[in-house]
Design brief:
Blueprint (H helix, E strand, L loop, with lengths): L1 H30 L7 H40 L6 H39 L2 H7 L4 H40 L3 H11 L2 H27 L5 H35 L1
Helix pairs in contact: 2-3, 2-5, 3-5, 3-6, 3-7, 3-8, 5-7, 7-8
Length: 260
């Protein structure tokens, strides 16, 4: 009976957190159209998030391209289908692997950073001081960061996919002596707008989820230094779960339109 009560309490807490997150998202859409726009802070956050994450995303994308090609090539060789390697790699990376892997990396890199930063500001009462001074901390701290993650993640995904395809080309060039021009002609021949558009659209939702959860966890961080660590950790865990849910919904909706 006690275990059942604990399960009920956990479920209630989960539903309560979902409700609070939904209210937080609604407040974001309400504040985003209000003046002042805080455009300078938005640009600063875009530069900070993009510049700090670009190297990590590029290295990860390069390794994914190498490993994915090295693992797939022997199987395709058994069926005499090595010529399909550029098409398979490009479609797999653009549609699914690139966006979700890049989003998970940014959830750990950017989401945890936002949660820790806002959590520290909440614990040290800097957010309270902004409210007392007449500044809108939600507009300045939350709206700018969510917009920055929403618009920067597609850019990071684009760079990650490009580097991953280049890594795949290097393997094919060494193993199969495939030229750069031939490889990229096959890549672009295989890709269609039906591959690019859904993959690009869902990256905006990925970025929005990363910024929203990171800001939510940090903005409502509990008192104490332990609360800052908990906010950063829970931001990564919660965001990762949310990314997979969004990805499933995106694939499901895309599949419906393809059937139509």
């Amino acid at each position: 009976m006690d275990n059942f009560s604990k399960i009920i309490e956990i479920f209630k807490g989960f539903l309560l957190e979902i409700g609070e997150l939904s209210y937080f998202a609604g407040r974001f859409f309400k504040e985003v159209f209000k003046h002042p726009s805080e455009f300078k802070e938005f640009i600063r956050q875009c530069f900070y998030m993009g510049n700090r994450s670009l190297l990590l995303v590029s290295v990860t994308g390069f390794i994914i391209g190498l490993v994915f090609t090295l693992q797939s090539r022997p199987t395709l060789q058994e069926f005499g289908a090595v010529s399909w390697m550029p098409s398979m790699v490009s479609i797999s990376l653009i549609r699914e692997i690139g966006p979700i892997i890049t989003a998970l990396i940014c959830a750990g890199r950017i989401g945890s950073g936002i949660g820790a930063e806002l959590g520290s500001m909440r614990v040290t009462e800097q957010i309270d001081a902004m409210e007392v001074s007449g500044t809108n901390p939600f507009k300045y701290l939350v709206v700018t960061r969510i917009l920055a993650t929403t618009f920067m993640l597609p850019v990071l995904v684009f760079f990650g996919d490009t580097i991953a395809i280049f890594g795949s080309f290097l393997v094919e060039n060494i193993k199969g002596n495939v030229s750069f021009l031939l490889y990229y002609n096959q890549v672009f021949d295989a890709l269609e707008f039906g591959d690019l558009i859904p993959a690009t659209i869902k990256t905006f939702f990925f970025g929005f989820a990363i910024g929203l959860v990171g800001c939510f966890k940090g903005y409502y961080c509990k008192k104490g230094t332990a609360g800052v660590g908990l906010a950063a950790n829970s931001a990564v865990v919660f965001t990762s779960m949310l990314l997979f849910i969004i990805d499933f919904i995106a694939v499901f909706v895309t599949d419906i339109f393809y059937d139509l």
